[in-house]
From TrEMBL, chains A, B:
The lineage of its organism: Bacteria, Pseudomonadati, Pseudomonadota, Alphaproteobacteria, Rhodobacterales. It comes from Paramylibacter kogurei. Coiled coil: none annotated. SUPFAM superfamilies: P-loop containing nucleoside triphosphate hydrolases. It comes from the Bacteria. Residues 1-179 form the AAA domain. Involved in chromosome partition. Localize to both poles of the predivisional cell following completion of DNA replication. This is Chromosome partitioning protein ParA.
């Protein structure tokens, strides 16, 4: 079971969209996948059609009250894909865990649930909130790698070095092997010189970490969540969906 | 001096872009304006051409070390507009202030700086980070109103009710008069049925709170920060810039 955080403290860069579409594309390829919705906004849950009133046990109950992760895991409408949902309660989790010296280890411990291990998930993706707060640090401590969506816009590059520093801090302070899984260019517009500049800068500075697959800005991608579906199902022959499927293949090729 | 938070916990909805462009448009109309960059990403500072190496005193020093706000205030390249910048240090402010029972009042107290009062600012805009954390609560406690940028996308509507609840909580628990200044539709694409749906839903549910002015998705707006300028200066005759100028006029008309 490989655990991957999808993170970037810059908001609106495509973390949730990437988590949903990559996970669904991998599930379609026969991999068993689990999504942890670690964002109090609960967008990954909604985007998979799991609406707020249906969320009985959530990541809040797991992190704050110690409920087993397996108990909060639900099926989705997609074969091979399960979800642990979130609600806005999660936004108070960092204050509620503040007394616990081992608060950064809570998610890592929860993922060691023996009943969860029996499910034989190939991949666990953690959709992170837009901040480098305790929730995101919990995700990094629990993860093997971090997949970084990078919006092809000016402000997005600015936050990248801080994110890479935080990953290094977690690796060194906890003696873990946390590293970058890959950097994915999102909302890319070929006609826009800013997009081209961001791609050039990213490939120059990050080299092979940047995926060949690039996700174009594509209106079908932003429509899909309103139908509770991933874009790879909602508009499977569209440019956006095909880019995420290409990413899934490139991601799998990189696992060896 | 009226204090306005620009907030929405959903990431990437145009908080920083709205803060910069509305503030600059008001400064051009002769109002004296101050921007507080309360986001550890420091995008408002960068977007105004105030680069990280130049940031001597920041909001971190004000909130955590008690430096006077007037001391951290710098001029910008725009007449009538000043800034209090931020750096990534600010992301540890909530943990560092946790012992202080009155931690939510720190920004409010800092804004009572007598030297700042002599500057006779008409408006103070606080660019908030994408979360409902201690920094954003500090902004709400210090503010008269909250201006809410609403991206014309599906996930953006989902978080709105939570944001309105938080504003109500702050108002009731502190006996303040905090209310919504207005809701601004951003990144609007007339050809996209999702944008039209979000506008219809917003006007039906929020009525007169929604500005007439709508900010279109416009590539010049996203290019402007890479030149350290507001879009209203970088591309002053463009559709995006003109929409922000229209907003400034509508905002002023609403002040009476
Ligand atoms: N390639 C794309 N083309 C067009 N729209 C997109 C694309 N990817 C994401 N979007 C839309 O952009 C918005 C932001 O994406 P998303 O919510 O996935 O970002 P995020 O990083 O998870 O945001 P947050 O920081 O709030 O968690 C959403 O409305 C989404 O539907
Ligand atoms: N009307 C618009 N048209 C096109 N691009 C826009 C528009 N408004 C903002 N942008 C771009 O979209 C991205 C997100 O905007 P911005 O950074 O202002 O949002 P934010 O809410 O402040 O994000 P965060 O949640 O990270 O603080 C930026 O790259 C910005 O340049
Ligand atoms: Mg998200
Ligand atoms: Mg911002």
């Amino acid at each position: 079971m490989k655990i991957i955080s999808v993170a970037n403290q810059k908001g609106g860069v495509g973390k949730t969209t990437t988590t949903i579409n990559l996970a669904v594309a991998l599930a379609d390829l026969g991999k068993k996948v689990l999504i942890l919705d670690l964002d109090p906004q609960g967008n990954a849950s909604t985007g998979l059609g799991h609406l707020a009133p249906d969320r009985k046990l959530t990541l809040y109950d797991v992190l704050v009250d110690g409920e087993p992760l397996s108990k909060a895991t639900v099926m989705t409408q997609v074969n091979n894909l399960c979800l642990v949902p979130s609600t806005t309660d999660l936004s108070s989790a960092d204050i509620e865990m503040i007394e616990d010296k081992a608060r950064v280890m809570r998610l890592k411990k929860a993922l060691q649930d023996p009943i969860l291990a029996k499910e034989n998930f190939d991949y666990v993706f953690i959709d992170c909130p837009p901040s480098l707060s305790l929730l995101t640090v919990n995700a990094f401590v629990a993860s093997d790698t971090v997949l970084v969506p990078l919006q092809s816009e000016f402000f997005a590059l600015e936050g990248l070095s801080q994110l890479l520093l935080t990953i290094k801090d977690v690796r060194e302070s906890l003696g873990s092997t946390l590293r970058v899984e890959g950097v994915l260019l999102t909302m890319f517009d070929r006609r826009n010189k800013l997009s081209q500049q961001v791609e050039k800068d990213a490939r120059e500075n990050l080299g092979g970490l940047v995926y060949e697959a690039i996700i174009p800005r594509n209106v079908r991608i932003s429509e899909a969540p309103s139908y509770g579906q991933a874009a790879v199902h909602y508009d499977q022959y569209g440019k956006g969906a095909r880019a995420y499927v290409a990413l899934a293949h490139e991601f799998l090729a990189g696992q060896n």
